[in-house]
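In the laboratory, one determines a bound structure by crystallizing the protein with its ligand and collecting diffraction data. In a computational setting the workflow is compressed into a single prediction: the sequence and the ligand go in, and a structural description comes out. We illustrate the idea with nicotinamide-adenine-dinucleotide.
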Amino acid sequence: MKNDFKVTNSIPLRCRTWRQEALLRLLENVLAVGNEPDMMAYATLGRATRDYSSHVAIVHALQTMTEDYTLIIQSGKPVGLLKTHAQAPLVIMANCNMVGHWAKSEVFYQLERKGLICWGGLSAGAWQYIGSQAVIQSTYEIFSRIAERYYNNTLKGHFILTAGLGAMGSAQALAAWMVGAVILVVEIDPERIQKCLAKGYLQQQVTSLEEALIRIKTAIAQREALSLGLLGNAAVIFPEILARGFIPHIVTDQTPAHDLLYGYIPADYDLARVHELRQANPKELMLAGLASIKRQMEAMLGFHKAGSVVFDHGNLIRTQAYSAGVADAFDIPVFTEAFLRPLFCRAIGPFRWIALSNDPDDIHRIDEYMVQRFADNHIVTNWIGLAQQYVPFEGLPARIAWLGHGERTELALAVNQMVADGRLKAPVAFTRDHLDAGAMAHPYLMTENLRDGSDVIADWPLINAMLNCASGADLVAIHSSGGGDSGYMTSAGVTIIADGTPAAAQRLQLSLTNDTSLSIIRYADAGYPEAIEEAIYKGVGYIALS
Ligand code: NAD
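The predicted complex, in structure-token form:
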């Protein structure tokens, strides 16, 4: 089917239609934003494609394929270009899925060394990664929920201690500052601190713990927002702060604790030594990492007992600490269960859109629509205002908003019309985090302590991917985790392009509506009353057995 859309953007298309061009731009965007060596994007080992030759072959396929073909990607490598039809997905992919019994980090590393597999992280492998901006709102929402529940609705005059200023972790500094809190982020790599300062995510670096604590006390007393980065190891600094009896209001961590080999840096090891040991003595490195995580977690539990709100921020730190002998590591909750589940029950989650024109004005025009259309939705209007003011664009301009069932579809259809009318300069891609209600099974993150005990059942993300294929989404991906995270989760990702055509309107309508319907069904099936109510109220097609 011919795509009649007239491009108003000055950049000529390199592919046959905007659908393929859009996916190519998203792939390039992952690499541009990730900006890490060796085609890596984030979370230590997350990649967009398996290697450079895979990348070249994918680009060639996207540039030459017509809309009635589907490109098949297996763990970041293109393996086939098959005739389907113009309503089918253009790209389907399965990244890093190992058979249950073998889904272990040592097997992953062996397969990776043989060049047979790669880890896509959550969003990188599905070409949906948009940089640290992707998780600022979720971090902001977590802090806001904590403020509501524990601190009289404000984090002004409150202190957050955390670690890790990496691709995702750096969002903590900006989000905390946006809620008016004082935050100290411990980071072992000086380059990461500089990068964060340069991006405007972090306000200042302090050179010692003494200086940090003086600055923090003053900012708390003056109820002033402040973000500080301290060069150091979390396994050393957290216990030191506890030993001084200085108890933060909130404690968390976003070091890559999930990966003892390529991620977490043990105490008393410098970065050069760690690089050396990865090849020379991985066992020593991993044991040292576990011992350090134990120290860090014991301090986190000490803060917990002293009254801090402590939570696992999705990096498996509790799991590692437990295996290192910290029996009560799971006394602290994971952020999804503790703070976000009521939103997920109503399919409200991290939805996002990306301006393929590379023009921020397109995002600002959609912002204007959002603020008018969702004027009575406080989460949305508050966030759009804050994001416009404080969140810099990274790569292709993008916006995130936590929208629910019906809202996502409505927005996407309105944007598709704006593209058709020429009010936007080029098409817009719609996607969402894999960490979304019906799209992820991760018993230590997304699905921990579900009401019905179905935490480890990975049928839901698989159904999600099949449903999105059946609904004609442009790209559909099934991911499982790799590296130190191997075996812990399965998720599904989806991308649909609003290119202004009636065919796109149909794809957006079906995919986005069905995607969030399944989210509500997943939580209704697990017995959450708010999901059952939403299922009935919104008529999502839930079948409840009597
Ligand atoms: P990253 O690899 O980009 O950055 C990690 C940072 O931690 C690096 O800057 C590193 O120098 C620093 N670090 C390592 N060990 C340290 C130590 N002992 N003390 C102080 N600093 C240390 O990783 P990322 O993308 O920022 O992700 C961080 C973690 O968050 C990962 O485990 C990832 O899987 C997890 N994650 C969670 C979510 C979520 O669900 N909210 C989303 C994405 C990533």
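Confidence is low (pLDDT under 50) at residues 1-10. Keep in mind that any predicted model is a hypothesis to be tested, not a measurement.
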